[in-house]
Amino acid sequence: MNTIALSAERLLARLHHLGAIGRTGDGRLSRLAADDADKAGRDCLVGWLHEAGLEVAIDRVGNIFGIWRPVGVESEEALLLGSHIDTVIDAGIYDGCYGVLSGLEVIETLKASGLCPLRPIAVAAFTNEEGVRYAPDMMGSLVHAGGLGVEQALAAIGTDGTRLGDELRRIGYAGAQEPGFLKPHAYLELHIEQGPVLEREGLSIGAVATLQGISWQRVTIEGVANHAGTTPMAMRRDAGHAAARVITFLRESALAANMPAVATVGSLQLEPNAINVIPARAVFTVDLRDPDELHLREAETALAAFLETLAQSEGVTISVERLARFEPVMFDAALVGTIERAAAARGYACRRMSSGAGHDAQMMARITPSAMIFVPSIAGISHNPREFTPEVDLIAGACVLLDVVRDLVLPT
Amino acid sequence: MNTIALSAERLLARLHHLGAIGRTGDGRLSRLAADDADKAGRDCLVGWLHEAGLEVAIDRVGNIFGIWRPVGVESEEALLLGSHIDTVIDAGIYDGCYGVLSGLEVIETLKASGLCPLRPIAVAAFTNEEGVRYAPDMMGSLVHAGGLGVEQALAAIGTDGTRLGDELRRIGYAGAQEPGFLKPHAYLELHIEQGPVLEREGLSIGAVATLQGISWQRVTIEGVANHAGTTPMAMRRDAGHAAARVITFLRESALAANMPAVATVGSLQLEPNAINVIPARAVFTVDLRDPDELHLREAETALAAFLETLAQSEGVTISVERLARFEPVMFDAALVGTIERAAAARGYACRRMSSGAGHDAQMMARITPSAMIFVPSIAGISHNPREFTPEVDLIAGACVLLDVVRDLVLPT
Prior knowledge:
2 copies of one chain form a homodimer. Chain A has 412 residues and is of the alpha/beta class. Chain A has helices at 8-19, 36-51, 97-113, 139-144, 150-154, 164-170, 197-200, 239-256, 293-314, 333-346, 360-364, 391-409; strands at residues 55-58, 64-68, 78-83, 121-125, 184-192, 205-211, 213-222, 262-264, 268-271, 281-290, 317-326, 329-330, 350-355, 370-375. In chain A, the strands form 2 sheets. In chain A, strands 1, 2, 3, 4, 5, 6, 12, 13 and 14 form a 9-stranded mixed sheet that branches. In chain A, strands 7, 8, 9, 10 and 11 form a 5-stranded antiparallel sheet that branches. Chain A starts with 7 loop residues before the first helix and ends with a helix. At the A-B interface, helix 8, strand 8 and strand 10 of A face helix 8, strand 8 and strand 10 of B.
């Protein structure tokens, strides 16, 4: 390949510039979908897209596209690079923004190099990926992929009682394009890992081959409240103890399973929750994730079987409510291989991995070959002001994205 | 022994009569220390004491005594039979009242029999055993035993902002006697078990040899909050899982220990308590009880050692706060033996046992030989309208009390 280099300086400057937009009085960063801060961030991004000479298109759900259609290229299908620029409340500056700005950086770099790609290249900033103000999350990419009707999305009512459609109109981002207007040839998303794996293993690049399936359940255990002093251990029907058995079972099962399988009990309430009363009731959530649908189902089945045995051995009644279920996403194997080769060619230590969090890429994978590139998150921290990725890794990730794009759209 | 028989009919009628006093509009029974309902219950009891021809004495903390001093008996020390008539909120009719009314029944029966005891016999209803309105519980007997100053007790501020001393004066039960004025020769308390042991084992009588020591601790485990999807199992510092390990450890340890040992985690809070966040913090209570001080200390030591190991293996920080600690009470072995013999002579199935709950008897044990007689509580339920002891068992308990009293105070 010709040696063409992106501008690390420009990429990092933009990342920090965008990260300064939407700070509240106490310095906390929040740009929630279609609020005033989001508008300011969008305006900033659109300015850069124009500066880069890209065609700017906004669709009806507010997704922003910066499209480079080289003269003479007839293909309609674009190589799409994307992510989001909305944030959680009290966010870091990397989540989402890093992917969008790197996509822009790659396109600007290629455009300046004089090389002519075989097809259009576009960068997308999808609306409401975080889902903090409006549900569901990953909304803009879901609408783009045809998984949610645009009218339904625009009718979403926010936590503040607002309607997304009204708010998009108010901030000037209710665009004219029908969602899905831009047909992707493939989709690539560069993102911070938001987990600790790459840092712990001393790696710079993750080639994300799968996105974990998610199973959320709420378990209710009904035992019998009784006096903590007068009820012998063998006669207890302790809902709290039964819940503890489930928690240790899930930990042991997930540890025994393949590495990417995780199981979490994050929320638990006891009743009556008194020091000297045996718990009559325990309500807790179970979050199971696995990149393999078969394994995820096995984990669900094993939990169900354990709960049945437990109900008998502990003399309790157990009911389960399903809260959410998403099948795992397999990213495009050829794209993942291309990412690995690109990383290797640059000398970056890389591994295949699974994403534990949800991303716009999982929606795009419904309609086009997709994959993700991860860079390390220090201590795995994200959705937090302490979210941090060293500059050397940010640059490495953008360089890999650049090389993968070149591989995909330049004539060999 | 001469065959003298108590009046089961009178005892049961009084129990139901007293149990009808203090019902709220919705039928729930509540007679909290020194409230209007308690006054009505006290007035009823005092009426019966007078009817029985007993000397009625009220001390400064409101304890009520009905004393039979047979003519010609010179001993000052009385055989004291007692319990309490205050209740919890939404109570059953047996807890406490059964012991007081049985004591009265035994004295009336002996008085009517023409037999002359060697010393006075008295029945006591101690103030504020339940501790629902004023702390501490078992207050009246504690003051009687010299464990709490009368001024301090009277200064207690209730959950409703009232002062116990004011309320006792208001209801006419701020008596003139100095607490402890009546010197006991021995103390006997007949009580419902409030636990399931006697019923499960098909026994009528429990000879209570010990009252469990209590150790209350609050444990705080600090882990690290992290994304439930992106944090591999082996890298977690999950405060909730560590808490679950403690709960199962306590259960297994208590099961492996001697039967009366119990361990309960009744209260637990997780933070941030979100479905998709690994718990950063778990705060829970530990209630350990054992009738043997040495075993209770061993249980505390074993827990401390487990927490230390756990902190290392789970990568969490654990701190422990002591909330309460009461040493076990050993009741008088001779009295316990007398109870067992009395039960056997009547043909009642009986066992030695430990009380898991606190009782006035534990305060009296500080100053005089004491013991308790238990009768079954169906399903172990107490502090609840469903509290129930079959009449046949109520009568059996009162008969055993009668025989033990005869054994202690009649010339052989």
